[in-house]
Write a structure and sequence with these properties.
- The relative contact order is 0.26.
- The protein is globular, with a radius of gyration of 19 Å.
- The chain has a single domain, classed as Jelly Rolls, CATH 2.60.120.
- The longest helix is centred in the first third of the chain and has 21 residues.
- The strands form three sheets. It has a five-stranded mixed β-sheet, with no helix packed on it. It has a four-stranded antiparallel β-sheet with strand order 2-11-6-9, with no helix packed on it.
- About 14% of the residues have low confidence.
- The protein contains one helix and eleven strands; from the N terminus they run H-E-E-E-E-E-E-E-E-E-E-E.
- The chain is mainly beta and 142 residues long.
């Protein structure tokens, strides 16, 4: 009888572990070199707009994407197009920056400029906490 009881306890515990790890957010990692060919590089996702407020609307607790730049870029532009009021928080080696949609942006936010070599965590959220599909575009074209 005791043996059956032990196995009965293992199954629910294993299910809890599996279900909790399945619900964890995973960041998509993107490596970019100066001569990347697919310009613009476009990835799709869903904004995580209700978990944490990092001063940039409501974003997820974990980044949606981690972009690693293998060299300095004299020009690179990150653009997010989404329904709702998208926000883009970028945390990098030299701090963070936030871009939020306004009534004139048409659901698009952009962060252009010079980008130093390093890893950048991109949090894509929404000003009102909504979750929306988005397209993240990364281009070296002005």
């Amino acid at each position: 009888m005791m043996k059956k009881f032990k196995y009965w306890m293992v199954v629910p515990t294993a299910l809890v572990v599996l279900l909790s790890s399945a619900g964890m957010a995973r960041s998509q990692t993107i490596q970019i070199t100066p001569n990347f060919q697919n310009d613009p590089l476009v990835v799709k996702g869903t904004s995580a707009g209700s978990q944490a407020n990092k001063g940039c609307g409501l974003v997820g607790a974990a980044p949606n994407h981690v972009v690693t730049l293998n060299d300095n870029f004299s020009y690179l532009r990150f653009s997010v197009q989404s329904d709702g009021q998208p926000t883009l928080l970028i945390e990098g080696p030299n701090g963070s920056s936030c871009v939020q949609a306004d009534s004139f942006s048409g659901g698009t936010v952009q962060a252009p400029g010079f980008w130093e070599k390093g890893s950048y965590s991109l949090y894509i959220g929404d000003r009102t906490g909504g979750q929306h599909s988005y397209n993240l575009s990364i281009t070296k074209t002005r």
